[in-house]
Amino acid sequence: MELNKMGERTADYPELHAALLETAKVWSNEPYTWLLGGSCGLLFQEVELQQAPRDIDIYADIAAAKRLHRTAPGTVLDEPQVDKTGPYASLLSHYQVGECALELVGGFEIWARNSWYRVEIDRLLAKHAPCIQIGSYSVQLMPLAHELLFNVLRGRVDRYEAIAKQIRKQPDQHQPLMMLLSEQNMWTSRFHSEVKDLVGFDWHS
Q: How far apart are CA 106 and CA 92, in angstroms?
């Protein structure tokens, strides 16, 4: 997806900008795909947030996460471990980069509302990931299609309503990936209808 120069959106958050710059600098030399998600990813995609980003969430496939851990920025706080908390499952590890906490999430899955969603970075999401520029480094973001579905599954009204508002501004940009995610995962008809009402278009093939 075309590079957009939104890196300056962290100008109001110097500690966050410094941590993101360090992360991008270290991992830009790696051949493994990683995407910036969570509140940081939403900030760069102009989603209205109720509070400023407090940490950095990085998503990768499991194999990539294991390799990225070896060259992680900042201070390594723990080793990658399989984490099953509530409806979530992933390979999880944590770091301190300057003043910011960084979480590396590998192979994320969520079971909720009788639906199942598996995050596939290389195969699906990276091909639809918008890019930003932080310093001289390009950073790919978790697509809003993912952020919407994830936040509806976990019931974060404050997040998914703001994300849906942004998606409705350019529906043609987001619908193709949402259709793919509909096909590749398990969703109830009720969930499909709820998301359709949020975004204003059908995403069920």
A: 6
For residue 193 the two structure tokens come to 């209808």
Which CATH number fits the domain 7-143, given the four candidates 1.10.1740.10, 3.30.460.40, 3.30.1320.10, 3.40.50.620?
Answer: 3.30.460.40
- How far apart are the C-alpha atoms of 62 and 119, rounded to whole Å? 10
User: What separation in angstroms does the CA of 6 have from each of 2, 57, 61, 133, 153?
Assistant: 12, 18, 25, 7, 28
Of 147, 117, 154, which is closest to residue 35 (Cα–Cα)? Answer: 147
**pLDDT, block means (10 residues), the chain with 205 residues:** 51 89 96 97 94 93 98 98 96 97 98 97 97 94 98 96 98 97 97 97 89
Q: What residue segments make up the domains of the chain, in order of their start?
A: 7-143
